[in-house]
UniProtKB/TrEMBL annotation:
Its EC number is 3.2.1.4. This is cellulase. It is an enzyme of class 3 (hydrolase). The keyword Hydrolase applies. It comes from Cherax quadricarinatus. PANTHER family: ENDO-1,4-BETA-GLUCANASE.
Length: 518
């Protein structure tokens, strides 16, 4: 039970996580290279067709086959004939060309559901594109059942890490297990002359928001550090380290100079207007940064925390990488502390998506505490105490542990490193409130926020397990956390799992652009 409970601890944000599993699809699907989607809006795209005439053309007839049925196809330079659900003919008496001339025109596709991609073309009787296309088939789930009961924590942990592989941006590795994802966003950072490829896409979208990504990396690393035994028991330690490293490799790239950190790639508006795979993105992806003239203490502090925590994870297996991360973490923390402001004043595009409502005080202490743990240098603990006194973390109500507000976790990590009653009492008080006074659903799930209720429950369940490990109301906290994770895996009146691909009647339509265009 203890090992199983340890494993539930690392579910934390991962329970956002296994969403892709029952929908993991394989099968080759590629748009013809000469069709470029130039504009998208919900249920529509406008594309440019280009081709070189290999024979004289006196009037165009272009047969198009789509990967899924469009509702309509519009061609303003001629006529459109629907052959069947996926085959259309575009014709025009006015388009002519000599051998070697380039033919170019636009057309519009209206659709619902999956994006219809052009996969086969016949131009005036000659096949000019025959993209390999097969109907997607279910991909074998690489996360096998282990027989653990009442819930297979090991399988769910595996599925959670698999989710992060579905979120990868950049050039994918040879051991990528989510085989319907391919290389994407390989030009990220080119607008500013830096390589900002890699990292993770956000949720079901394609912006790389550095602030929540850094929080994710910190908490993933925390689970690997303090619940290593559970990871080893589930055979997930290496997958967990790979998930952390995919983020930290990106953070090291994003730290382009002293007091300079790129904290976002992609703009929220154009990204959210595109419903398609990251492999098919054509919109501009601007890069946004903080620096000493436009600081962001929350972003820099959280990134410092992520790198410091990750340096502990890799200290024994890759000491050079660990030292590199720790060096950058120190510099970013000093940057965060010396040049203070919330990051959304510099990266204004993030305001509508990941505004730092709690301010930057929690991230300053969080970064200092992780540096204290990673280095053993009491100077950082002293600085963390200074932040505690300055920002009065218990002065306002603490109601969650999230990408925005880390105060509850600061209480726990402070107690672990310092042992002072002030920090212990704050941590115990928060958990007592969660267990006894916070709102609950009728089924028994703690309900801390309507936006992502399950992840909030999983996050505080992790803190309860961490408190149990520290010897704080150990049995009560462990049982309460086990009950919350049980709620998410099927211990509810409907016996319903809330993890896609796991258990009874799991969700079937996750919000995830990469998935729905297969």
């Amino acid at each position: 039970l203890w090992s199983a409970a340890n494993m539930t601890g690392v579910l934390k944000t991962c329970l956002l996580g296994a969403l892709a599993l029952s929908f993991l699809l394989s099968g080759a699907e590629a748009q013809c290279d000469n069709v470029n989607i130039i504009t998208t809006w919900p249920g529509n795209y406008q594309a440019e067709f280009t081709a070189t005439a290999t024979s004289a053309i006196n009037g165009l007839e272009l047969e198009l086959e789509f990967s899924s049925p469009p509702e309509t196809v519009d061609f303003y330079q001629g006529q459109v004939t629907m052959v069947d659900d996926t085959h259309y003919i575009l014709s025009s008496d006015f388009i002519t060309a000599n051998v070697g001339d380039e033919i170019s025109f636009d057309f519009q596709v209206v659709y619902t559901g999956a994006t219809p991609l052009v996969v086969h073309e016949v131009l005036n009787g000659q096949v000019i594109c025959d993209s390999v296309f097969t109907t997607p088939s279910p991909m074998q789930n690489p996360c096998a059942e282990t027989g653990m009961s009442p819930y297979d924590y090991a399988q769910v942990l595996c599925m959670s890490y698999l989710f992060y592989e579905a979120q990868r941006s950049g050039k994918l590795p040879a051991d990528q297990r989510v085989t319907w994802r391919f290389d994407s966003a390989l030009d990220d950072g080119s607008d500013v002359g830096h390589d900002l490829t890699g990292g993770y896409y956000d949720a079901g979208d394609h912006v790389k928001f550095g602030f929540p990504m850094a929080y994710t990396a910190t908490v993933l690393a925390w689970g690997l550090i303090d619940f290593e035994e559970g990871h080893q028991s589930a055979d997930q330690l290496e997958y967990g380290k790979a998930a952390v490293k995919w983020a930290t490799d990106y953070f090291l790239k994003a730290h382009t100079a002293k007091d300079e950190l790129y904290g976002q790639v992609g703009a929220g508006g154009p990204d959210h207007a595109f419903w398609g795979r990251p492999e098919d993105m054509t919109m501009e992806r601007p890069s946004y940064k903080i620096d000493d003239g436009h600081p962001g203490s929350d972003l820099a502090g959280e990134t410092a925390a992520a790198l410091a925590a990750a340096s502990i994870v890799f200290k024994s297996s890759d000491s050079a990488y660990s030292e590199e991360m720790l060096s950058v973490a120190k510099e970013l923390y000093d940057f965060a502390d010396a040049h203070r402001d919330i990051y959304t004043n510099a990266i204004t595009d993030a305001t509508a998506y990941y505004n730092s409502w709690s301010g930057y005080g929690d991230e300053l202490a969080w970064a200092a505490l992780w540096l204290a743990r990673a280095t053993g240098d009491d100077t950082y603990l002293t600085r963390a105490r200074g932040h505690w006194d300055e920002f009065d973390y218990t002065g306002s109500e603490v109601v969650q542990f999230s990408w925005d507000d880390k105060r509850a976790a600061v209480f726990g990590l402070f107690y672990m490193l310092d042992g002072g009653d002030e920090y212990k009492n704050a941590f115990v008080s928060f958990l007592d409130w969660v267990k006894n006074d916070a709102p609950y659903t009728p089924e028994g799930l703690v309900f801390l926020d309507a936006w992502g209720a399950n992840r909030h429950a999983a996050n505080v369940a992790y803190l309860a397990l961490y408190a149990a490990k520290l010897g704080l109301d150990a049995e009560e906290n462990r049982e309460w956390a086990k009950g919350q994770i049980g709620q998410l895996l099927g211990d509810n009146p409907k016996y319903q799992s809330f993890v896609v691909g796991y258990g009874v009647n799991p969700p079937e339509k996750p919000h995830h652009r990469s998935r729905y265009t297969h």
